[in-house]
Amino acid sequence: MIKSTAILGSTGSIGRQSVEVCKRLGIHAAALTTNKNIGLLMEQIKVLHPEYVAAFDADAAERLRAELQGTDVTVGPAGEAGLIEAATWEGAECVVTAVSGSVGLRPTLAAIDAKRRIALANKETLVCAGTVVMARAREKGAEIVPVDSEHSAIFQCLTARRGELRKILLTGSGGPFRGWTREQTADVTPEMAVKHPNWSMGAKISVDSATMMNKGLEFIEAMHLFAVRPEDIEILIHPESVVHSAVELLDGTVIAQLGVADMELPIQYALTWPERRPSAAERLDLTALAGLHFLKPDFEKLPCLALAVDCAKRGGTAPTVLSAANEAAVALFLSRRLGYNEIYDCVAAALGSIDFIAEPSLEDILAADAAARAFVRERFS
Fold it and tell me: Which of 34, 62, 197, 231 has the lowest tally of Cβ within 10 angstroms?
C-alpha cells in the first residue's frame, strides 16, 4: 500500500471520497488541488496537513495564497501549472486524478514522467490521448490503476488472466432516462439529468451518465487500459448496478466483480493495490437482491453512446473531438444555454466539422481538443 498521494480535484465528488479513504487508511495527502472551492479546501488542509496546495481558478488561487500566508504550506500557481506541480510533488508516491475533463491530460503525463502511480479517475485523459498516455506509461514504467468502478472491476477480474481474455462485459445502469425516446427527453432539465438512480456523482458525469455518453467514454477508456479492440468489448445495460463489470475468458467462463454502489471501494483498491484492506463500505447482501438484469443497449434511443462507439472504431482524433465537444456541450446544458437533446447535436456537428487525423501527435490531440471546444462555443452558445 502506498504511504502518500496527491489528489487533483480534492473538493470534487471523487476527490472528497479519496480524502475519506486517505483519512481512514492513514495515507498522507501530500498535495491537494481544487478548482475554486477554497472553503472546503481549507477544511481539508486543517485535517490532512498537505505540503502543497493549488487552485485552478485564478481568483481562487489569490484567495488561497492570502489564506495561507505565513504558514509552511506551499501554494502553487493557478491553472494547469499548479496541477502539474501537485502531480509531481516529491512527497507523493501516487496521484489521484480526480479532475474532470481534458485538463487532466498534461498533469497525468507529468506524473507518469515522474514515475508516480496513477489512480486514474479522469477518463477523458485516455479518451483524448490514450495511445500517447499508455505508451508513455510503458516507457516510464508507471503504474496506472483505474478508479472508475467499471474499469476497477475489469482490472480485478483480469488479474493474471490477460492472455485468456475473450471479451470484456462493460455494464451500465442505463441512467435515469432508460428507455425514453428523443421526444420524451426533449424537455429534460439539468435538475432531472443529475439525479442518477444508483450513484452519487458530480454534475458533468451525471449528465454523461444520463445521455450514456459516459459509457461510451468508458468503452474507449477500456480499449486503452486493457489493450483490446472495440469488438472485444460488449456493453450491457444492468439497471441494478451490482455487477460493476465482468470478463469472459477463452473457455466461456465469466468472472464478474459485484459490490454495493460506493465509489470509495474502487478508490481504496487503487491506493492499496496489490493489497486489500478492510473498508467502511456497506456489505453486499446477495439474499436481498430481487434479481439481476442485463439488456443489450438500444443504440437508436442512445445516440450519444452510438456516436462514442463509432469514434472508438475510427480512432485517431475522433475520440478527442467527441470528448471535448461533449464537455463543452454539457457545460452549456448545465448553464441552461442548450437543450438536453442538443448535446448530441453539438457533438455530432463537431465531429463532422473538425479535421480528422488518423495518427495524431500530442500536439495534434491538443489542437483537436481546442478546435472542438471553440466550434461548440461559436456554433451553439
Answer: 231
